Amino acid sequence: MAEHLLPGNPPVPLTLRRSARARRISLRISSLDGRVTLTLPKGLPERTALAFAEEKADWIRANLEKHPDAVEAVFGAVLPIDGQDRVIAPAPGRRIQLEAGRVAVPGPAPGRPLQRYLRELARNRLAEASDFYAARLGKGYSRLTLRDTRSRWGSCTADGGLMYSWRLILAPPAVLRYVAAHEVAHLQEMNHSKAFWDTVEHIHGRWQDQRAWLRENGASLHRYRFGE
Q1: Taking the CB of residue 45, how many other CB atoms lie within 10 A of it?
Q2: End-to-end CA distance of the chain
Q3: Which residues of the chain have pLDDT under 50?
Q4: In what order do the strands lie in the sheet with 97-99?
Q5: 147 φ, ψ to 5°?
């Protein structure tokens, strides 16, 4: 996949995806987070797809207006990290600084550097939580990967691979730890039976509040855009 910007004020991030099955350019705007994706045949030049997007610019912007809650990761925007609202501010040095009430990012465009920082922070927190619950369970996992999934917060494969959404770093820490416990419990119970939920409670404790938080607020974690 390739990332581009549709010119205008503000620029609109575009994701270009090639498909062997595509016979023509197709345009999709996610109803969840407003992400604009162009799917094009393998042999079609990118400039042709970008020209197509520019022709559809009015239609794209009109549809994006249906997503008023989308938040671009720009200076002055408010972003939850560990469930706490932080203002994105310029950093005087070369490193991102996470502080109470703000996150300071160096450079002129904070979106992508901030996303990389959050992914790394999420990896560290999720690895720590997964190690903790795996030790409690007495089982090991084979690998840990992060993705920007839309339909699930985590998964566990039959060979012990754990996958998480990096956006869990935006949720309260208790919610992130619950998801880790949930997926680690699948190392023992690859189902959602009573035995599975008993395992979650055994290694984590009560989980109902954290699960309810995700059901009520999880979709909002996808509203933040980082210039992908």
Answers
A1: 9
A2: 11
A3: none
A4: 78-81, 84-90, 102-105, 97-99
A5: -140, 170
What secondary structure, in 3-state letters, does 118-132 show? HHHHHHHHHHHHHHH
Q: What is the reported pLDDT for 67?
A: 64
- How far CA 65 is from CA of 29, 31, 34, 58, 164, in Å, comes to 11, 12, 9, 11, 30
Residue 106 is predicted with a pLDDT of 95
Distance CA 165, CA 187 (A): 18
Distances (CA, A) of 73 to 119, 167, 186, 224: 14, 14, 34, 7
**Is residue 223 within 8 Å of 69, Cβ to Cβ?**
yes
Spatial CB neighbours of 55, under 8 Å, sequence gap ≥ 6: none
Could you write out the DSSP letters of every residue in 108-165? S--HHHHHHHHHHHHHHHHHHHHHHHHHHHT---SEEEEE--SS-SEEE-TTSEEEEE
Q: Nearest to residue 220, comparing CAs of 175, 180, 178, 181?
A: 175
Predicted TM-score of the model (pTM): 0.74
